[in-house]
Every structure is written in C-alpha cells, then in structure tokens.
Design brief:
heterodimer, A: alpha+beta, six-stranded antiparallel beta sheet, B: 358 residues, Gyrase A, domain 2, Elongation Factor Tu (Ef-tu), domain 3, six-stranded mixed beta sheet, globular
C-alpha cells in the first residue's frame, strides 16, 4: 500500500479530496479503501449537475466481494465525472490516487479545511 | 475464539488477507482474487480447505446408516473409492448440510462436511446413530489437513510435486483413493479437474510449499466463491439451509425418491413437493447481483441467494430461487439499490472446464 499524499485532504469514510487551482474539488477513494474492497468491477458515478450534500451518497464502488457507497466530502454541485474509471474499474485498484471519481464545485470554499490531513487520516486507518 | 487451520502461518507469511469464515480465520485472497480465479480456470490453483471436516464412518452397519441419514442413495456407490454428493435433511425436509461421502470399503466410508456446520452435523449424526441403535462408529478427523488443487494443470502439477501419488493419475472423476497416509480424491468445488488431498496435518505446510514450487497458485475463499458460483454449485448457508428444501434449492438431482428407502426428510419432501425453482441469472446491464436482492418475474417474486461478478463471463451472475413458471430465456428485473435492472434467466451453470456456458 502506498502512503497518503500530503497534498490531499481526507474523510473518515475513506474519500480523498484535492483542491484544484480553479477552486473545484477532485474526489476519489483512498488506497486503503481500494485495498480493503479488493478487485473493483463496477463503479456508478453521479450525474454532472447533481447537487450533493456533505456526507450523503455520491457514488457506488463495487468489488467482487462487496458494494460500498462513496460519500460527498463537502456540499456542492458535480461538475465532472471520470467515465474512464467506469470503463476500467480495475484502474482504481492499480492507482487509487490518480483514478478520481468526480469533481465538485463546492458550495462553501472553506468547507474543505475541516477535512482530515494525511496524518489524521492515517490515524483513522490505524484505529480501524 | 477464532479457529485456525494448520496452514494459518503459511497464509499469513505469504501476505494473505485473512477473514472470519464460519468461525475460522481463513485467507480471502493473496493479491487479486480475479487473478486467482483465472489461474484455476486456465492453469492450477490451490485452496486450504482444512476448515472442512472429514468424518470417518466404520462398522458393518455403515451402508444401512447412510441409506437412512442422507437424501441421495448410498446404494449408487458400487465401486470402491466412488464418491456421492448429497444433502443431509431434517425431518421437515430442510437441509442440515451438504456433503460428499466416499465409499472406501464395505465397512469404511469417509464423509466431508462443511466447516461452520461440523459441530451440529456431528451432534445430529450421533443422535441418529443412538436413535436407530446403529453400531457404526463416527470419527471426526481433525488430525487431517485438506488441500484442494484445481485447474486444467492441477493433476499434472500435483503429481510432479509428489511422485508417490502416481497411482492417482488415472483416477476417474468423483473417486478417491488412499495412498499411504494420503487420501487423494478427484473431487472439487470449482468446475475444473483436480484433486482434493487429505493428509496428516503436520505435513500440510511442506506439501503446500511443494505445490507452490510446482507452480500451483495459492487461492483464497474469494476466488473459491466466484469459481463455485460460475460452476453452479450451492453454498451452504447461502443457497440453502435448514429452512429450505433441496427441491427448491436446485438439489433435486441429489434426492433419490425412487424405491422405498426411508431416509430422514423423505415424507416431508413428498408432502411438500417442489415449491420454487433454482435458476441462474445473467445481468444484462452494468452492476453486480448480490444475495437477497429481489427478483421480479411475470410469475411473481423471487430472491437471489448468491450473486457476484463473474471473472470468466466479465459480467454479473447469480443463483436465485424463483417462482415455478419462470422459463429459461425469460427477462426478469432485479432490484439493485432501488433501481430495477434487466437480467436473463439461464440454467444455473455459467462456466466449467475453462469455458463460458452462456
């Protein structure tokens, strides 16, 4: 497993968030999450334009073993989705940090500050 | 207290991800479970199945006892070494367990029963023995470890690793043979050729490592589940249990109602008849079928009992209990998280011998 990049923010529910230069947020699931799920075979992403509330279901990732919800890390509107990962779910197992799921235009640009940093997220993983 | 097989340390040393399975700490995968699945369909893989329980029956009354204990007819076993798959039923016709029994000789039989059900099975078998005044002895063999080597290259690689097992080379399907202190059977749970090997527990780690050296890939319970589901083989506790009749769980072919043989559960099965049918589903859309999802058919509602993504077919498949009247080829709808997706009804066998049957 690879270390949690320090330039990302994290949630307790194992999403990672990257703040882009234009203020949008790119969201994926962590390497720990893909490792725990095992071989991914199906990914369902939200529609572009969908309004999401922080902590509610945004996407679904399914491995051979199980289905898991992906939650919106903050409130916002979906402004892009990664359809390449839908066509190749296994790419998320290969590199969880580059296989993003969707981008959000956050309702409140400061909301991301309240998310976990890499060390705090590692503590969540270690405590599980 | 979680139980461990004698190979537990070997699994952990090779980086297996371990999970609780019926009270046993077992490897679910060693890396990619899809790679492990393909290894078995295309080459050779192996599973630690030491959590399952071999039970030896001995005595003059074995055949009479088994004729009454299990739903399939032990009388079908005419050749020494031949194996029989059967359900063991309660008086209401529910499935206590599914098992394989090997005919070793007229006074010796070996059964292999499931891990999670072993204690209740043995209690039931002993209670039946008492009630029927049978003198047969019932001995669980926890001193044995079991390794299933499966795949088109399984026999060849096993025999290359163990020259002393050469006599097993010509074993016809569904037979077992005792060679020294090793019992080798041409049975399995994957839809591929191969061996199930029972050997003294203290020799299991060396045997496992010799098989790795011969090119047999360690595979976890994850791949075991997708392989058995593709092969259309039932999993106890999921596809059937004590509240499900074998006739409703696709096991009618293992229930022998011919003649007058009075086995436990016979009267209940005759009274109930078949009430549902056990069929396969192939999902037409993207998504993954899972156990307990509801199935909507023209003839009524059914339920998925096992579902997964099939690595061989590269789409989702399932086993389901559906109403009588549903026909093969029919399109039905499955409720997946509130959405209804189309699935096609097929025979409950999806892939065997490396090939898709869909």
């Amino acid at each position: 497993m690879s270390a949690n990049p320090s330039n990302l923010k994290y949630t307790k529910s194992h999403e990672w968030v990257r703040v882009e230069a234009d203020g949008t947020l790119t969201v994926g699931i962590t390497d720990h999450a893909q490792e725990a799920l095992g071989d991914l075979v199906f990914i369902e992403l939200p529609a572009v334009g969908k309004e999401l509330t922080a902590g509610t279901e945004a996407a679904v990732v399914e491995s051979v073993k199980a289905a898991a919800d992906v939650y919106a890390p903050v409130s916002g509107v979906v402004c892009a989705v990664n359809s390449a990962v839908v066509d190749a779910p296994e790419s998320l197992n290969a590199d969880a940090w580059s296989a993003w799921l969707f981008k959000l235009q956050p309702a409140d640009a400061a909301a991301v500050d309240a998310l976990l940093d890499a060390d705090a997220y590692q503590q969540v993983v270690d405590a599980a | 207290m979680t139980k461990e097989t004698v190979l537990n340390a070997v699994h952990r040393a090779s980086g297996a991800k371990m999970v609780d399975f019926g009270g046993w700490d077992m490897p679910v995968n060693y890396g990619s479970q899809i790679d492990e699945h393909h290894k078995v369909r295309r080459d050779a893989g192996m599973f630690d199945v030491s959590h399952m329980c071999a039970v030896d029956l001995a005595g003059e009354g074995c055949r009479a006892y088994l004729a009454r204990l299990i739903a399939n007819d032990i009388g079908k076993l005419k050749q020494q070494g031949k194996a029989l798959y059967s359900a063991m039923l309660n008086e209401s016709g529910g499935v206590i367990d599914d098992l394989i029994v090997y005919y070793l000789d007229d006074t010796h039989y070996r059964m292999v029963i499931n891990a999670g059900t072993a204690d209740k099975d043995l209690a039931w078998m002993n209670a039946c023995r008492e009630a029927w005044g049978s003198a047969v002895s019932i001995t669980p063999r926890r001193d044995l470890a079991m390794i299933a080597v499966q795949g088109p290259q399984a026999r060849q690689k096993t025999l290359a690793a163990f020259h002393e097992l050469a006599a097993a080379a010509e074993l016809k399907p569904f037979f077992g043979v005792q060679i020294g202190d090793v019992f080798v059977a041409s049975t399995g749970y994957t839809g591929e050729d191969g061996f199930e090997i029972a050997l003294p527990a203290e020799r299991a780690a060396a045997a496992w490592n010799a098989l790795v050296a011969a090119g047999v890939a360690p595979c976890g319970l994850g791949a075991r589940d997708t392989l058995r589901l593709e092969a259309g083989m039932n999993l106890y506790g999921q596809d059937m249990d004590e509240n499900v009749s074998p006739l409703d769980a696709g096991l009618g072919w293992t229930v022998d109602l011919a003649g007058e043989r009075d086995f436990v559960g016979r009267a209940a099965l005759l009274a109930q008849g078949q009430r549902q049918q056990f069929l396969g589903l192939v999902l037409e859309d993207r998504g993954v079928l899972r156990a307990h999802q509801k199935v909507f058919c023209a003839a009524g509602e059914g339920e998925i009992t096992s579902g997964t993504f099939s690595p061989t077919l590269e789409r989702s498949i399932a086993l389901a209990r559906l109403p009588l009247g549903v026909a093969l080829g029919e399109t039905v709808e499955v409720d997946i998280r509130g959405k209804r997706l189309a699935a096609r009804v097929v025979k409950p066998v999806f892939a065997r011998k490396g090939k898709s049957l869909i």
